[in-house]
Structure to design on (224 residues):
C-alpha cells in the first residue's frame, strides 16, 4: 500500500538551532517527492520537487534531500518566521499522497 | 501573494442553503483541483479537472458539485451540506506534464466553510 509518514509530528526549536524533518515513503513507481509549507489558515506553498535518489534542492535556510526510502528537510539556523507546518507529498502513478505534516515552532 | 484566488474567504451556511465557492488562476495552468482540509490533517483530494474536463472524482458525495466554465475558473457548488462538511476548501492549479498530473501544485488561500 502506498504510504507517506512524516516525523516528528511537532518540533519546537530555539532560533538558530538547526534540525531535520523526515518524510518516509513506500510507493510503487515514484514520480516525484514534493515539499510544501503551510501557514495556519492558508493554503500550502510549494517549496521543492525531488525526482531521484541523491538529488538535493536548497532555498534560503531550507535544504531538501532524497534517498530511495525517505526525504529530509534540513533547516539551518531557523528564524521565527520559519514556523509553519511542513508537508511532504509523493506522486504515485495515479495520485498525489500527502503526509500528515510536521508542525514546526521556532522561538526567539 | 498567491496567484490562485479563492472567494469567499469565509462562508457560513445552513444545511438547506445553496452556495458556491469560486477559484480563479491566470498562470496558464490546464489542471485545476479541489481539496478539502480538516484541522491538523493533510489536504484530501476531491476533484481534478484536466483541460476543463473532470478527470478525477474521489467518490465525493453529490452534495458537492464541481464546475469548470473555462481554463481559468473553477467552481464548487454546495447544496444540502452536513456539519461534518465544515472544513477549509482549497483550490489548486498546475501544469499538465506529458505523463499526466504533476505534484507541483499552486494553492489558493482557501475558503473556510462552516455548516450550521
Amino acid at each position: 500500500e502506498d504510504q507517506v509518514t512524516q516525523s516528528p509530528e511537532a518540533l519546537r526549536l530555539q532560533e538558530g538551532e538547526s534540525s531535520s524533518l523526515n518524510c518516509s515513503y513506500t510507493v510503487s513507481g515514484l514520480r516525484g517527492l514534493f515539499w510544501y509549507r503551510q501557514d495556519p489558515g492558508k493554503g500550502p506553498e510549494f517549496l521543492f520537487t525531488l525526482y531521484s535518489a541523491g538529488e538535493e534542492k536548497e532555498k534560503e535556510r531550507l535544504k531538501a534531500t532524497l534517498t530511495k526510502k525517505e526525504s529530509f528537510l534540513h533547516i539551518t539556523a531557523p528564524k521565527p518566521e520559519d514556523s509553519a507546518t511542513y508537508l511532504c507529498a509523493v506522486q504515485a502513478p495515479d495520485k498525489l499522497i500527502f503526509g500528515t505534516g510536521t508542525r514546526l515552532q521556532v522561538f526567539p | 501573494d498567491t496567484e490562485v484566488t479563492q472567494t469567499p474567504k469565509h462562508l457560513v451556511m445552513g444545511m438547506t442553503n445553496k452556495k458556491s465557492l469560486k477559484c480563479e488562476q491566470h498562470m496558464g495552468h490546464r489542471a485545476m483541483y479541489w481539496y478539502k482540509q480538516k484541522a491538523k490533517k493533510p489536504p484530501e483530494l476531491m476533484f481534478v479537472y484536466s483541460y476543463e474536463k473532470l478527470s478525477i472524482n474521489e467518490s465525493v458525495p453529490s452534495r458537492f458539485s464541481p464546475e469548470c466554465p473555462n481554463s481559468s475558473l473553477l467552481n464548487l457548488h454546495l447544496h444540502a451540506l452536513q456539519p461534518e462538511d465544515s472544513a477549509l476548501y482549497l483550490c489548486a492549479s498546475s501544469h499538465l506534464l506529458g505523463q499526466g498530473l504533476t505534484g507541483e501544485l499552486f494553492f489558493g488561500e482557501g475558503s473556510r466553510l462552516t455548516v450550521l
In short: The two ends of chain B are 31 Å apart (CA to CA). Chain B touches chain A at residues 2, 4, 40-43, 45, 88, 90, 92, 99, 101-110, 112 (CB under 8 Å).
